């Protein structure tokens, strides 16, 4: 029954020692937007620039070979991290957003026909809404929305009803960034497949909090970002089943993604995964992402999951004692984030004032306007947690919130 050693974890994150507004200690509760970066990741990226900086794949010298080995080493770490079968199934992108746009523009634009339906959930991030809306305008496909109940739990009966024979693709997040709800993605995948539809899972808010196994889920596509899982910005992952990726045409063209190019005979594309990695990628960031996975392995995802669940329970209990506070999203299965509103206080005011007390939370629509509208609000405050947060920080946050509320109400 090991416990996470949070004191040791915190030592890996120098930024947590920061003070803001002069001498106020920082309490960082915005990891769902961007998690902090452990020293090992920062050092790996710095070491890359100090020792092996060069372009990958096309070089025929020592630095290029070493950079290539480190870059491809990260691909193997990602494969293992999500239990994909093959490294060919791991495509590096700029982030979740780019990964979804890749699927929409390659798979979607080529495999969807007028009249086809794409199901998305009401609690999607704009990154998993807008690319499908753009596609719908081009192709005359129809988007349909899977609703959720008042607790922020997806309505599985409605989902079953929506799964008609025109549905070709289901797009859903594994964990909602706005509500924290964990969605039953394996069950959703099973149902989608029963209806010959594919499923794309946005795992941006899932991979930092729990072990993910894309084969156990039977995901067709699974996407996530480095900067929400202790890695750097500018890098993310598209996992896709080999046969699907194999059949998909490239989305972006350029260097690195070709076998031969000629004016007479056109272009032969490179094999997977390079077919989808046009141009020089974010090499240092990919290497940093690999280090973030090493860090998660050393720290043990199982311990992080359990620790964060304790933080979530403690925070929920403390927050519900605040007069007039309403939590948006009360699913029994939540991870990482708690959204809330308070009677008589604007989310924006709470955010600004609590920042003066050193507490960083997110306020606004969290790039998920439709689901906030579903709950009758246009903004919430969101406190989100990572392995380095402590129950003491949560107590200080709730105390700060009480102080702020006495000012604004
Ligand atoms: N999906 C979800 C669920 C998210 O939380 C986010 C980031 N807030 C994104 C997609 C977009 O990720 P990125 O900006 O890294 O592309």
From TrEMBL:
Cofactor needs: pyridoxal 5'-phosphate
Pfam family, any one: Aminotran_5
Catalysis performed (reactions): (sulfur carrier)-H + L-cysteine = (sulfur carrier)-SH + L-alanine
Aminotransferase class V domain: residues covered: 27-397
Entries under Gene3D superfamilies matching the protein: Aspartate Aminotransferase, domain 1, Type I PLP-dependent aspartate aminotransferase-like (Major domain)
Biological role stated in the UniProt entry: Catalyzes the removal of elemental sulfur and selenium atoms from L-cysteine, L-cystine, L-selenocysteine, and L-selenocystine to produce L-alanine.
GO molecular function ontology, one term from the record: cysteine desulfurase activity
Chain coiled-coil ranges: none
Matching PANTHER family: CYSTEINE DESULFURASE (PTHR43586), CYSTEINE DESULFURASE 1, CHLOROPLASTIC (PTHR43586:SF8)
Keywords for this protein: Pyridoxal phosphate, Transferase
InterPro entries, sorted: Aminotrans_V_dom (IPR000192), Cys_dSase_SufS (IPR010970), Cysteine_dSase (IPR016454), PyrdxlP-dep_Trfase (IPR015424), PyrdxlP-dep_Trfase_major (IPR015421), PyrdxlP-dep_Trfase_small (IPR015422)
EC class of the enzyme, as a word: transferase
Bilayer-spanning residue ranges: none
Its EC number(s): 2.8.1.7
Family from the record: Belongs to the class-V pyridoxal-phosphate-dependent aminotransferase family. Csd subfamily.
Protein name, per record: Probable cysteine desulfurase
GO biological process terms on file: cysteine metabolic process
SUPFAM superfamilies registered for this protein in UniProt: PLP-dependent transferases
């Amino acid at each position: 029954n090991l416990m996470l050693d949070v004191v040791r974890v915190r030592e890996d994150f120098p930024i947590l020692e920061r003070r803001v507004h002069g001498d106020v200690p920082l309490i960082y509760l915005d990891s769902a937007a961007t998690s902090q970066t452990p020293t090992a990741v920062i050092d790996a990226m710095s070491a890359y620039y100090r020792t092996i900086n060069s372009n990958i794949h096309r070089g025929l010298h020592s630095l290029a070979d070493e950079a290539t080995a480190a870059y491809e080493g990260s691909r193997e770490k990602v494969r293992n991290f999500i239990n994909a079968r093959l490294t060919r199934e791991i495509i590096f992108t700029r982030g979740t957003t780019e990964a979804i746009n890749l699927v929409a523009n390659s798979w979607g634009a080529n495999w969807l026909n007028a009249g086809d339906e794409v199901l998305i959930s009401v609690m999607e991030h704009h990154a998993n809404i807008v690319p499908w809306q753009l596609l719908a305008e081009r192709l005359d496909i129809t988007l349909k929305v899977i609703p959720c109940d008042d607790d922020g739990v997806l309505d599985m009966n409605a989902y079953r009803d929506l799964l008609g024979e025109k549905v070709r693709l289901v797009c859903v997040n594994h964990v909602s960034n706005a509500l924290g709800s964990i969605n039953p993605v394996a069950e959703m995948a099973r149902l989608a497949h029963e209806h010959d539809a594919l499923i794309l899972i946005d795992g941006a808010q899932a991979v930092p909090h729990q072990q993910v196994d894309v084969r156990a889920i039977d995901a067709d596509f699974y996407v996530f970002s480095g900067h929400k899982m202790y890695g750097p910005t500018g890098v993310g992952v598209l996992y896709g089943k080999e046969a699907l990726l194999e059949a998909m045409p490239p989305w972006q063209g350029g260097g690195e993604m070709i076998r031969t190019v000629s004016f007479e005979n056109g272009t032969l594309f490179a094999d997977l995964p390079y077919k989808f990695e046009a141009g020089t990628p974010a090499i240092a960031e990919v290497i940093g992402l690999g280090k973030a996975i090493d860090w998660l392995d050393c720290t043990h995802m199982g311990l992080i999951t359990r620790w964060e669940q304790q933080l979530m329970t403690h925070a929920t209990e403390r927050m519900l004692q605040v007069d007039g506070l309403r939590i948006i999203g009360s699913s029994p299965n939540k991870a990482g984030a708690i959204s809330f509103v308070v009677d008589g206080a604007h989310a924006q005011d709470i955010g600004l004032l609590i920042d003066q007390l050193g507490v960083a939370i997110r306020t606004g629509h969290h790039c998920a306007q439709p689901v906030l509208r579903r709950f009758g609000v246009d903004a919430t405050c969101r406190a989100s947690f990572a392995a380095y947060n402590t129950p003491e920080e949560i107590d200080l946050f709730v105390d700060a919130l009480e102080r702020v509320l006495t000012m604004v109400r």
